[in-house]
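G., the chain you wanted modeled:
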Amino acid sequence: MAVGSVLIAKVYIEQRYDTFFSNWDRTYIISEKIFQNGKLEIYPQISGAVAPGVKRYAPQVEVATRYTGIADDCNCEMQDKKKIKANIAFTDSCFFDIIDRPIIQGNPKEVLSRPFYCMINRKLAAKLGDNIIGKELVLKDLSGLRVIIGGIYEDIPFNSSMRDFNIVLSMATMRKFKQIDGSNNWVGNDRYIGFIRLAKGCKIEDIHRSVEKMRQENLPLKKIKQAGTDLNYMFTPLNKIHTSDPAVKKMSWILSLLAFILIFSAVMNYLLIVIGNIVGRAKEMAVRKCYGAKGNNIHSIIFSETLVHLIISIALAACLIIACRGMIEKLLDASLVTLLFNRGSWILLAVCIGILLIGGLVPGYLYSSIPVATAFRRYNESRRHWKLLLLSIQFVAAGFLVCLLFVINKQYSLMINDNPGYNYENIATINMVGIKPEQCTKTIEELKKLASVESVTSADYLPHNHLSGNNISLPGDDREYMNIADLYSVSDGYLKTMDIKIVQGMSFTEQTDSLREIMVSKSFVDKMKLLAHWDDNAIGRRILISEHSQTPTATYTICGVYDNIRVGSISMPDDRASVMFYSKQVCTNNILIKFHNLTSDNMKEAQQLIQKLNPDKEIYLTSYKSTMQTIYQPQYNFREAVLIGGIVTLVIALLGLIGYTNDEVVRRQKEIAIRKVNGAEVNDILHLFIKDILRIAVPSLIVSGIGALIVARKWLEQFSDKAPLSFFLFFGSGLLVLGIIVIAVAVNCHKVANGNPVEYIKGE
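Predicted structure as tokens:
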């Protein structure tokens, strides 16, 4: 009950993503549809002018808004020197018209219309203290930008596709950051998340003509077409963004199956116990009938017993859930209150009613069918076939989950121990955003002096980051060949520190950028061979790359080709080719430290040095390996959920097996005694029971293995690299469960097999 109800609640929350605000069913998110080189790609962000443009052109649109993130874990400071970290975004004044969170203080329309004003969420406001409206907040990582707190809004709940930004700044403030301000762009700088809400009674198809008119009048369609590209827009219901993700679909489906297996196994086990007690209670029911009890009276007795058992189970399950609250919230990434007390509570109520009906009506029918003659003679009805059927169902459930657990664990191990094309085993990283370049340079120089440090370098972005894209073209050619993942700049020694292999040419000419050099991945060359008919040698070729090449003559020369590295992760792969540029200055986004041997003491020593050199900012040194583990946290949590479910189901099956074995021992004790009198050994007696169980256990485990194989294949579809599914994996899993079953039977039957046969037949 405890594990099953939590899993059901988790699935419900997952399926109710982005429905926390009113009119969610009329709210759509805007994406770009990019058609390039015969391939359609959907990009979930848009240029700044698109969302307001749709509102202006389409009368069916009630309101439109947009936002763009600017900083994560930004160091902020109040006038009283109180320091906090916050996630920050720019939004326009209509943001809370669509995402209508309760406003605790302030007028969001007024606040978000004024430059250098912001709204903060309730959680952040609680950290800052009372009477903070009108006070100044310094955003230290954003060049010391000073903003005024104008209002407080309720936190965005966790089951939202939107980032839970602590601070939203007015879009007018963005003009201070001219290098990223694209709020009026129709093409390019597509960093914005855009939303529209339709008027009541309107359909999304109604705005297509207006959107096409907007495209014709504002987009440079002729130039885009000459580049071999087409750009259009797609409108997706906001609540479908999360639930339509194949990984989420598979996860929800498997968790639902797991919850069903758990609860169904428990109910089957309950029936097994109750039905097993028929022999012992047969006379009681027959005597009740002799005194006038009808079938409905017998039903009422059994039903009331089931009700009492269910109430006790619910109470104990509640205690168990509360006791394990921390583990549950960590595994399911949600608060316990949110999981269990929401509009989906009716599902849990329906499950309880279903358990009550099955657990009460089925045994009630069997007990009411006991003949009255049982009161005057021995009742030997064993209901053995019922028991074996219920037991086989539990074996299937336990075997299925154990097999699935082995597959999930193997895939998780593959992801954690994956070779992404670079070596991060002894690397730690520091985020230095907001620190002056000269301080970063000094920090790197001092770190290099530590005996535990092998090398230090820096980079704008790391391969596991979500990377922006830019388009590739060639000098004298208007065509855009492909979109690449842009790693931006790296500094001296980056490739050596990351152990990235160079397969062609050489690394950057360090301490100079006069050649405007660029390095590209091997997949970049492979794609250009197909698209631009290059030969194998890419060294010396000149290319144009949007954002970096502001003029047709601003070309970059390929100086080297590095082996393919994994961009993104196995669970969220980015299959684009990648490029990187050189900077002779320190890249302040990330400093990478490679240790001779990464230990906690070495990390602590480096951390203390960094903090000493940068006392004005809280800086944390993080091992690259722990960052990769964080990326795969959802898969870890899923593995743990299946592990818990598998253990619980196996325990339930073993309890049912013990109950069945005990009943069989009682039923066959005289047979056992006679066999022993005639010379049967202990092993002969154990063989009787084990052979009996194996007849149902082996076929059940074969079925469970086939089922696990089907589900595992579906689950693995979401990953770019998949763990191999071998016969021995499923055979070994089944053999493990079979071994546990045999041991349980042997231990449970050993007493009677070793007992004195006289004790079992002396009453005859």
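The chain has 24 helices and 22 strands.

Shout if anything looks off.
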